[in-house]
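User: Please run a holo structure prediction.
Assistant: Happy to. Please share the sequence and the ligand.
User: Here you go; the ligand is shikimate-3-phosphate.
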Amino acid sequence: MTAGPTGSAPSTKSSPITLPRRIVLTGFMGAGKTTVGRLLASSLGWEFIDVDAILEQRTGSTVANLFEQHGEAGFRRIESSALANALGRRNAVIALGGGVPEILTNRLLLEQTPGTTVVFLDAPFPVLFDRCMLQENAAVRPNLQDPAVAEQRFRQRHPLYRRIAHIRLLTEDQTSAETASDVLRRLATL
Ligand code: S3P
């Protein structure tokens, strides 16, 4: 499948895809939201927005520092405002932080912002945890410090990811490029 020029629908052999205004990637830490999101944005000729990066730019502080200074509840408030801002963009692929769907207001924002397609990148917890441990920023993810607590969060969040998503993709055996292509394929079926 190849993407068309900016703003137009990618073409498949059978039919053109009607694109939403924005594609939102959700899932636990290690799901590949940022990597897949960049690939997807580049193949569509769209803007890529990482909600964690936006809130770091706006506050001039890192996610880890924000957790330390304001606690998780304070971080979530800043995150909600960054999410609302990102959902105002069109022709954008938006990667959420893994905890965004925990907050009811965020779920409502995602559900009620017209033209928003939410994609859940799913994989089993051990796969996600291992992926995170291989990443450079493994030490700075506040909610990954205790594996047992992280796994419990994964279990609590899983139904929320499923509930808000229009598309769920299993990424365990896939490269990020394959997952990005799958997102486009699945958009054609909506
Ligand atoms: C978090 C996930 C992180 C970041 C913060 C909290 C979480 O984003 O927002 O460390 O609670 O799952 P990524 O999912 O992009 O790592």
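Residues 1-7 have pLDDT under 50 and may be disordered.
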